[in-house]
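re: ur question from yesterday

yeah so i grabbed the chain u mentioned. its 151 aa long if i counted rite. heres the sequnce exactly as i have it in my notes:
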Amino acid sequence: MINNSFQFLLSVFIFNILLTGCGVKSKPIQYGMDACYYCSMNIVDKIHAAQVVTTKGKVFNFDAIECMINYTLKSEHDEIALYLTNEIASPEELIDATHATFLKSEAIPSPMGANLSAFKNHAMAVEKQKELGGQLYNWEEITTYFLTRDQ
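ran it thru and got these structure tokens back, copy pasting raw so excuse formatting
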């Protein structure tokens, strides 16, 4: 009887570990401790950092949106489940980069010099552009920009 109960509890425990341990989800960036996967710089900027999560749950952190984009342009896209970026109005908050509006403006310098910031609210991005200047992009446009800028 004890043996069957132990086996049942062990099975439930292992099942829970497998269920929760293999999920595709972001992990908090440890600012000042984590390094950028693309350029190896220390991640300290809390409004320009980014992250990708693979379909297997592996997390890659980046010190700037442009590092994440450059990395993804050189990797297998079908392996990436989540593209995330910090939101300028809410430092440290990761948002879905594929639904963000990006502002490229010299008035908001980013760690790697592309001066690229993300907004989850398009209207807020438009207001910031009116105030500071620059160019607005959606995800498809900004990845195309980075793909074609060096050609």
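noticed a couple things. The radius of gyration is 19 Å. also DSSP finds four helices and seven strands in the chain.
anyway ttyl
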